[in-house]
């Protein structure tokens, strides 16, 4: 079973589109800030592109999607194919494990801008051992050296105090990924300080209640990356905190 996609995901996404609409708008806002290009886009974890903006995709000459889910390609074409054809954007949908074969996939698309579309925060569900999941994420980052890439992913998720339907949507928040640690900051508590400060600010706006799940993506972006924080009310009483950013080639 696919713990981050498949039929259950498509059913939930289709039914939840009205609830997720403000989040999709925030994602489209973040994507629209990227300067237009007619180059190639490599979209990893594309699924059906339930939360993806056709306008953003249409700025590329070619969009290559990857997903392990066999339903992803036909549903992606159904959702975005017409807009892309109208824009003259070529669409190639691949079924495959782009994370375990990342070196090869990147090599096949050397010039493409890479976007991980809500997949890196799911790695801990594919590798239930937390250390193994962290190790997988670190090895993906190593492979991305020298590439222009971006990601939108879960940072945290958990229950909220007030049902989402009874409160206004939490507006997106901007921050900059914390700078490297000073040599003296060795304790775990010190290391986590910037994340905890960010959690306090955005977490209180999200109306977080109790313990939230850490999706192990806190160190994904290099220091100095402009990060956009987006509220994703997944269910009426359960919210995801998305983080999005672009990383220039080092
Ligand atoms: C939360 S969904 C992504 C949602 C999608 N971006 C959208 O807008 O609908 C995560 C997706 O990542 C896919 N996925 C998980 N592991 C993958 C891998 N190793 N390679 C490619 N896709 C993967 C899952 O099948 C699932 O469709």
Task: Walk me through what this model shows.
The chain has 250 residues and is an alpha/beta fold. The protein has one domain: 3-Layer(aba) Sandwich (Rossmann fold). The chain contains eight helices and nine strands. The protein has helices at 7-32, 54-57, 72-87, 102-108, 123-126, 130-143, 188-191, 193-206, and strands spanning 40-44, 62-67, 90-95, 113-117, 149-159, 173-176, 213-214, 226-235, 238-247. Strands 1, 2, 3, 4, 5, 6, 7, 8 and 9 form a nine-stranded mixed sheet that branches. Helix 3 (72-87) links the parallel strand 2 and strand 3. The longest helix is centred in the N-terminal third of the chain and has 26 residues, at 7-32. The protein is globular, with a radius of gyration of 18 Å. The mean pLDDT is 91. Bound molecules: S-adenosylmethionine. S-adenosylmethionine (SAM) is lined by residues 2, 4-5, 9, 13, 44-52, 66-69, 72, 97-100, 117-119, 122, 126.
- The CATH architecture comes to 3-Layer(aba) Sandwich
* Percent range for β-strand residues: 15-25%
Unreliable residue runs: none
Q: Helix count, per DSSP?
A: 8
- The gyration radius over C-alpha positions equals 18 Å
The third-level CATH topology is Rossmann fold
Question: How many strands, what sense, and barrel or not for the largest sheet?
Answer: 9 strands, mixed
As a percent range, the share of helical residues equals: 25-40%
Query: Helix/strand-derived class?
Result: alpha/beta
**Unique bound compounds:** S-adenosylmethionine
* Shape verdict: globular
Seen as an oligomer or otherwise, the chain set is: single chain
CATH class: Alpha Beta
End-to-end Cα distance: 37 Å
């Amino acid at each position: 079973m696919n713990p981050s996609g498949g039929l259950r995901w498509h059913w939930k996404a289709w039914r939840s589109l009205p609830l997720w609409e403000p989040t999709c708008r925030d994602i489209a806002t973040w994507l629209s800030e990227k300067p237009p290009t007619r180059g190639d886009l490599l979209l990893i974890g594309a699924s059906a592109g339930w939360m993806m903006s056709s306008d953003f995709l249409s700025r590329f000459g070619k969009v290559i999607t990857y997903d392990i889910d066999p339903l992803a390609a036909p549903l992606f074409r159904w959702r975005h194919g017409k807009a892309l054809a109208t824009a003259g954007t070529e669409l190639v949908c691949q079924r495959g494990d782009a994370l375990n074969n990342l070196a090869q996939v990147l090599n096949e698309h050397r010039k493409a801008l890479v976007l991980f579309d809500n997949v890196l925060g799911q790695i801990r569900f594919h590798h239930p051992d937390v250390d193994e999941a962290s190790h997988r994420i670190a090895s993906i980052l190593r492979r991305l050296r020298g590439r222009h890439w971006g990601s939108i992913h879960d940072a945290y998720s958990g229950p909220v105090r007030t049902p989402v339907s009874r409160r206004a949507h939490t507006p997106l928040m901007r921050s900059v990924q914390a700078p490297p640690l000073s040599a003296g900051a060795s304790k775990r508590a010190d290391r986590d300080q910037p994340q905890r400060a960010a959690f306090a600010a955005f977490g209180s706006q999200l109306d977080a209640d109790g313990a939230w799940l850490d999706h192990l993506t806190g160190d994904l972006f290099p220091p100095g990356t402009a990060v956009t924080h987006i509220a994703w009310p997944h269910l009426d009483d359960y919210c995801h905190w998305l983080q999005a950013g672009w990383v220039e080639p080092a």
